[in-house]
């Protein structure tokens, strides 16, 4: 697979996601509560890499599944991701005025509407993942996919990570604690994406295991790369000011490990991720290239 | 069924709920994020009528189902209800310092932790309803119950009602608009409770229809009675100051219809609810008495 083929595949997956998201969350101009849908769509359709849906599709496909049956799951995980960004930006959390170069949800719609748009997106995610059944997935696989999403998004995963993030805001932490925090805050959802793709394809246990090892390494590499971009990235490409982590006195890999060791960790983890997919052979070329591209990204 | 038998049944259902909630959301003192579990339990185990779980159990039982298989669904809907109260009390929403006579979640744990405890409870609700499968419910019925919960809690139901509530805060609305608002804000979840109980019991279409008519009437009666209690209730029994709706310039049934017509509406709706259950005959005695008790409640 060359770079052109890779980019074309990324684009196909992203377009499948966009088209379905627009369908799952339609405009509702005739309803008195139409502002809710505007707020949901404002954040949901703001672009972004769609990394999590891409992982759902790619693992579903790699394990021999039909990506159409995984489409609701891909959209569901993007809804959960989007809700988490909206709530994260709220004044009582990170108090960020900008997201992807535009006013954050509470700046655009007010705090209460932003809170409720996040709540609605989280709820919609579960309505949506359950629609895998109607998209052709077996009942048992649909139940498993929904359960994976719930566990990764909640108190065992993402929300726990956000609580840890708050607790650690003004105290020194170790690299191990930061790895645990990120495993929950961002890693759990990335692993859930891979796991849902596998489950919906009816993957074997060894396939699920390999996918999880890939996703675990990719998730951590992604987070370290995020920190590196905050230090050395281009604010225009990122759509947000750089240096914000240091300003907020946040613990980062760069602060804890140094610039060089952080870069090396990204390279090592990317390698690990690719090696985990060895059992799949050449069929895993897309996911291997994805790991490389994530490590080389500039935004 | 006499009053003593009714109270004993209410107590049994409430105790089943309490015991299971404690299991579904255990204390986690050994985890660094233990405050998340404390905040979830603080609001979830604060008492309350457990009306929604009672409806799940009672309809499951009325339609010939095993209440054990509906226990996760009963807990799930109580989790959704609790999350909605936590988010509703936040400063950017109703800004309430008290809930059931105690400091509201954000007063006790801070705004960010309250927000996240709500998010975690909503997510946990879906993890929990999916556990109906392990509790013995069929896969297809579990999927249906989860889908009912998602639709009732989200943009078609409760969250839409909260958006409408905000939009109407400082404007005059008609009784019809208020009925639409409440049908979404509180009615949807009450109907979902009845519907989940039916679905998990494998109820026939006519049974579901009768249950929905009951729940719809009960939900509206409940809301009008709430308004009546805010005007004429006892602050000590309610655990919150009365007159707060009038102070916040909220539109209420009492303001729109007057005291007498509101009382009559509660009586008429209670009658409607009971009549809807006529096809079930004497087996519906518990739910008929529940409607009467709700109309006569003082808190």
TrEMBL record, chains A, B:
<dbReference type="Pfam" id="PF00348">
    <property type="entry name" value="polyprenyl_synt"/>
</dbReference>
<dbReference type="InterPro" id="IPR053378">
    <property type="entry name" value="Prenyl_diphosphate_synthase"/>
</dbReference>
<dbReference type="GO" id="GO:0016114">
    <property type="term" value="P:terpenoid biosynthetic process"/>
</dbReference>
<dbReference type="InterPro" id="IPR000092">
    <property type="entry name" value="Polyprenyl_synt"/>
</dbReference>
<dbReference type="GO" id="GO:0004337">
    <property type="term" value="F:(2E,6E)-farnesyl diphosphate synthase activity"/>
</dbReference>
<keyword id="KW-0479">Metal-binding</keyword>
<dbReference type="GO" id="GO:0046872">
    <property type="term" value="F:metal ion binding"/>
</dbReference>
<dbReference type="GO" id="GO:0005737">
    <property type="term" value="C:cytoplasm"/>
</dbReference>
<dbReference type="InterPro" id="IPR033749">
    <property type="entry name" value="Polyprenyl_synt_CS"/>
</dbReference>
<keyword id="KW-0808">Transferase</keyword>
<keyword id="KW-0414">Isoprene biosynthesis</keyword>
<protein>
    <recommendedName>
        <fullName>Farnesyl diphosphate synthase</fullName>
        <ecNumber>2.5.1.10</ecNumber>
    </recommendedName>
</protein>
<dbReference type="InterPro" id="IPR008949">
    <property type="entry name" value="Isoprenoid_synthase_dom_sf"/>
</dbReference>
<comment type="similarity">
    <text>Belongs to the FPP/GGPP synthase family.</text>
</comment>
<keyword id="KW-0460">Magnesium</keyword>
